[in-house]
Design goal:
By secondary structure, the protein is α/β, with parallel strands linked by helices. It has a single domain (65-348), classed as Carbon-nitrogen hydrolase (Nitrilase/N-carbamoyl-D-aminoacid amidohydrolase, 4-Layer Sandwich), CATH 3.60.110.10. The chain is 32% helix and 16% strand. The strands form two sheets. It has a six-stranded mixed beta sheet with strand order 5-4-3-2-1-12. Strands 6-7-8-9-10-11 form a six-stranded mixed beta sheet, covered by helices on one side. The chain is globular, with a radius of gyration of 21 Å. The model is unreliable at 1-7 and 12-45 (pLDDT under 50).
Length: 400
C-alpha cells in the first residue's frame, strides 16, 4: 500500500472515528455518562470543541473591551522597488494603528480623543497588498514570522497594551517553497499570540486561474500529522476573549465550527471582497461577535481598478443578535469602533445547538468535488498552473 493511500485511509478513519464519537455524545444519557464510542474512537477528545454548552477559555482581565476595524487601502508591494514599497506600506499601517488608538504623531502620541482600543483588526493583506504574483515572486515578498513587520506591529501592540490582528503571505521553515496565507494575532507583550493558517481557498471560481497561497486544505494530511486536528480550525484563547480570524469567504459551516470551538469574536478578513452582509448573518446564526473587515477604495493598487473588492456594504462590527454596532459609511479609508461587554456575553452565551445525530450521516457520506492535499504532489508556480490543477481535479471521478 502506498504512503499516499495509507494517509488517505488514516484520515478517513480518523474522521469516521470523530463522527462516531460525536453521534455517541449527542445520544449519550442525560446524566453525562460517557459512551464507549466517545472514549475509544480514534481521535476522540483531540479537538477542543464545546461540550453541552461549555468550551475552553482563560480568565478575562476586564469586563468590557473596545474593538476597532481598519478599512485600509491596498498598496501592493512593487517588486521593482521591493524594500522601499514594503517600508512605505508598513509605515502606513503603523499610522493607521496610531489613528485607531487616537494617538497620531501630530498629537505627540497623546490620546486626545476617544478611548483606548483593546483589539485592532485589519484585513487579509494590509501591508503586502495583492497581486497575481508567481510563486517565485511570492517567496520574495512573504514574511518571516516573527520578522521585521510583525515586530513593528508588535511594538505598537506593546505601546498601547492591546491585541492587533493582520493577514499576510508568510514563510514557515518546515514548509519550504510554500507561501502560506496567514492570519496573525499579536499581543500586548509585543509577541505573536497566534498564527492561523487560512483553512481553504475557494476553487473553480477564478476563470482560468486559481490561488497559489497554501492553505490547510491543500496539505491537510501532513498538516494534521504535524500540528494535530485541533489546529486545523484554531481559536486563540486570550484574556480579552476567544478570537478566531479567517480569510475564507462564503463558508458558513466553517464559521459555525469556529463558534463551536469556542470563538467569541470572529474576524472575517477577506481582501478583495469585504464582509458586511456575511458578518451580519454569521453573528446572528452563530451567536457571537463578528467583525467583517474589508479594504477601502484603492486608486494606487497596481493593475486593478480602484474599486476592486469594495462591494458588500463595507466594514462592520456586529453583535450576537446580528445588530450592527458600527459600520463604515462608505468605501473610503476608515476606522470603526465598538464596545463589547465580553464578560456578560460569556456568562449568558448559548453556543449554537446542532442536532449532530441527524446531520453527521450526511456529512460522512458526502463527497466534495475537490479533495484535500492538492499541493502535496506539486506546488503550482503560477495562477494559471493552479487553474490547470483545478480543472484536472474537476474532471476526476468522485472519490479519486
Amino acid at each position: 500500500m502506498s504512503k499516499k493511500t495509507s494517509s488517505k485511509i488514516d484520515r478517513r478513519a480518523l474522521l469516521t472515528g470523530v463522527a462516531a464519537a460525536s453521534v455517541a455524545a449527542a445520544t449519550a444519557n442525560a446524566d453525562n455518562t460517557p459512551s464507549p464510542a466517545a472514549s475509544n474512537a480514534p481521535g476522540a477528545g483531540s479537538i477542543a470543541v464545546a461540550q453541552r454548552g461549555s468550551y475552553e477559555k482563560v480568565a478575562l482581565k476586564q469586563d468590557f473591551i473596545n474593538v476597532a476595524a481598519i478599512q485600509s487601502q491596498l498598496y501592493s508591494i512593487d517588486l521593482r522597488d521591493k524594500a522601499a514599497t514594503n517600508k512605505r506600506n508598513l509605515q502606513r499601517v503603523l499610522r493607521l494603528i496610531d489613528l485607531a488608538q487616537n494617538s497620531p504623531e501630530e498629537w505627540n502620541g497623546e490620546r486626545r480623543w476617544g478611548s483606548k482600543v483593546d483589539l485592532i483588526c485589519m484585513h487579509e493583506f494590509p501591508i503586502q497588498g495583492f497581486q497575481p504574483w508567481t510563486r517565485k515572486e511570492l517567496n520574495q515578498i512573504a514574511y518571516e514570522l516573527p520578522g521585521l513587520e510583525s515586530e513593528a506591529i508588535g511594538e505598537r501592540a506593546k505601546r498601547y497594551g492591546c491585541y492587533i490582528s493582520f493577514g499576510c503571505y508568510a514563510k514557515e521553515k518546515d514548509w519550504p517553497d510554500h507561501v502560506i496565507n496567514m492570519s496573525v494575532l499579536v499581543g500586548p507583550d509585543g509577541k505573536i499570540v497566534s498564527k492561523q493558517w487560512k483553512a481553504r481557498n475557494i476553487l473553480g471560481l477564478f476563470g482560468d486561474g486559481a490561488l497559489i497561497g497554501t492553505t490547510v486544505y491543500d496539505v491537510l494530511d501532513r498538516y494534521v500529522e504535524m500540528y494535530g486536528w485541533d489546529a486545523v480550525l484554531p481559536v486563540a484563547r486570550t484574556d480579552i476573549g476567544n478570537i478566531a480570524i479567517t480569510a475564507v469567504g462564503a463558508e458558513p459551516m466553517l464559521y459555525t465550527c469556529l463558534g463551536l470551538k469556542g470563538a467569541e469574536i470572529l474576524v472575517l478578513s477577506v481582501t478583495g471582497g469585504s464582509n458586511a452582509e456575511s458578518a451580519i448573518q454569521t453573528a446572528r446564526a452563530n451567536r457571537l461577535y463578528t467583525m467583517g473587515v474589508g479594504n477601502a477604495v484603492s486608486p494606487n493598487n497596481i493593475g486593478f481598478p480602484e474599486s476592486s473588492g469594495t462591494r458588500d456594504e463595507g466594514t462592520v462590527i456586529v453583535d450576537p443578535r446580528g445588530t450592527v454596532l458600527a459600520k463604515t459609511d462608505n468605501h473610503h479609508e476608515d476606522i470603526i469602533t465598538a464596545r463589547i461587554p465580553i464578560a456578560d456575553f460569556r456568562k449568558t452565551r448559548r453556543v449554537q445547538e446542532l442536532p449532530m445525530a441527524l446531520m453527521l450521516p450526511v456529512f460522512q457520506q458526502y463527497q466534495p468535488t475537490f479533495q484535500p492535499n492538492a499541493f502535496m504532489d506539486k506546488l503550482p508556480a503560477t495562477y494559471q498552473e493552479a487553474g490547470e490543477i483545478v480543472r484536472k481535479r474537476m474532471s476526476m471521478k468522485s472519490g479519486s
